[in-house]
Amino acid sequence: MTQSIDLEELAFVAAVMERAHRLLVAEEKKLPPRTSDGNEGPGSPNQTLLGAGELTRGADDAVRRIALAIGYACAGLHPQALRATRIAHFTPRSVPGGADRMARPLSSGTIEALKLVRQVAEFFGEGLREAIDKALAAPGATWPPADWKDYDEERMKTAATAASASAGLPGASGSRTVRTPSGGCAAPGHPAAPTTSTYSAASGTPSPSGSPPAPAHPAASVRQETG
């Protein structure tokens, strides 16, 4: 069955993201240039500038990916258009993550830009809307961590907890099969082709969609097949 591409949806999302990008560019230009005063804590002028740049580049990258998909589709290159469309659905890099570096209150332009991205969050999959809400509600900057040692220890504890929980799941002695959408995220009404991924008890993690990993143990295998 031939998969279709919704050009109207792609064009709409691209227009919204470009509008957000222009707002972010304007806000970034208002910030003072980077200095070498050593003040690199969360919400510092340097970190705010870094965060603003991350937001700007993330929005611009999203626009470019969508535009590439539209270009392939208009050129009649259907396989390339499908691949580019799947990539276009990926969550924009550092949006809204860049805001975690930035001083509060956020500028009106930055807030408006994030709210624009929020309007098309479903195009990029689950979690983006909630992440934007969290960033807008945050009373202050949260990145980088004040204590990297505590941060690394907390990450290790979280990873250990996740591994333990995975090991305790039914069938953990071998493997279990789940169906996941290929290509990461999918927009409503445009589900990606499902794949079958086998979770390995040896690693406790699923194999990335589209590419089987090197087994961590001879008994740990990964099987993927188009559904």
List the helices and strands and how they pair.
Blueprint: H1 7-30, H2 45-74, H3 78-88, H4 108-119, H5 128-137, H6 148-167, E1 175-181, E2 194-200
Antiparallel strand pairs: 1-2
Helix pairs in contact: 1-2, 1-4, 2-3, 4-5
Radius of gyration based on Cα positions = 21 Å
Output the helix-strand order.
Answer: HHHHHHEE
Assembly annotation: single chain
- Poorly predicted tracts of residues: 172-227
What this model shows, in words?
There is one protein chain. The protein has 227 residues and is mostly helical. Helix content is 47%, strand content 6%. It is built from 6 helices and 2 strands; from the N terminus they run H-H-H-H-H-H-E-E. The chain has helices at residues 7-30, 45-74, 78-88, 108-119, 128-137, 148-167; strands at 175-181, 194-200. It has a two-stranded antiparallel sheet. The longest helix has 30 residues, at 45-74. The two termini are 12 Å apart.
What's a concise summary of this model?
With 227 residues, this protein is mostly helical.
Tag the structure with descriptive keywords:
227 residues, mainly alpha, two-stranded antiparallel sheet
